[in-house]
Amino acid sequence: MKLSEKIKANRAAIVEIVESNNTLYPRIILDDLNFDLGENHLDILVDRTSEYSPGDLGEIQHQLEKLLGVSIDVITPNLLRDEFRDKILASALVI
Fold first, then answer.
1. Sequence-distant (≥ 6) Cβ neighbours of residue 72 within 8 angstroms
2. Predicted pLDDT of residue 59
3. Per-residue pLDDT tens for 30-78?
4. Per-residue pLDDT at 18 exceeds 90
5. Contact predicate 85/59, CB 8 Å
6. Do the beta carbons of residue 88 and residue 80 sit within 8 Å?
7. Angle 11-19/55-68 helices, nearest 10 degrees?
8. Where are the domains of the chain?
9. CATH 3.40.50.720 fits 3-94, yes or no
10. What is the distance between the alpha carbons of residues 86 and 4, in angstroms, rounded to a whole number?
11. In whole angstroms, what is the distance from residue 47 CA to residue 4 CA?
12. DSSP string of 34-73, one letter each residue
């Protein structure tokens, strides 16, 4: 199964994993929109809630890698370099 199909089939589980770890609004970073060509990695962007702690990103990464079977990086907007932040946020694909 292609990565795009795995994401569509597991959308509810992905959102549940993100929301149960004190973050919201999972998105795929635009550079990964061609992920069917290289189906072994995915960059996910999430927003923090007031209950967020840095360990939450690691837990999301672990759970999503287990669910989707690919390498995952999870970041928040504040971790993006200033010069790229607006462009990445504008082009990220909502899961």
1. 41, 42, 43, 44, 60, 61, 64, 65
2. 98
3. 664 454 445 788 899 999 999 999 899 999 999 999 999 999 999 999 9
4. yes
5. no
6. yes
7. 160
8. 3-94
9. no
10. 25
11. 22
12. TTTTSTTEEEEEEEE-TT--THHHHHHHHHHHHHHSSEEE
Q: Are strands 71-75 and 41-48 parallel, antiparallel or unpaired?
A: parallel
Q: What is the pLDDT of residue 2?
A: 87
DSSP 8-state class, residue 92: P
Q: Residue 75 has which token pair?
A: 């970041």
Residue 95 banded pLDDT, cuts 50, 70, 90:
very high
Q: Are 23 and 56 in contact (CB under 8 A)?
A: yes
Please give the distance of CA 58 from its chain centroid, rounded to a whole number: 12
Predicted model pTM: 0.87
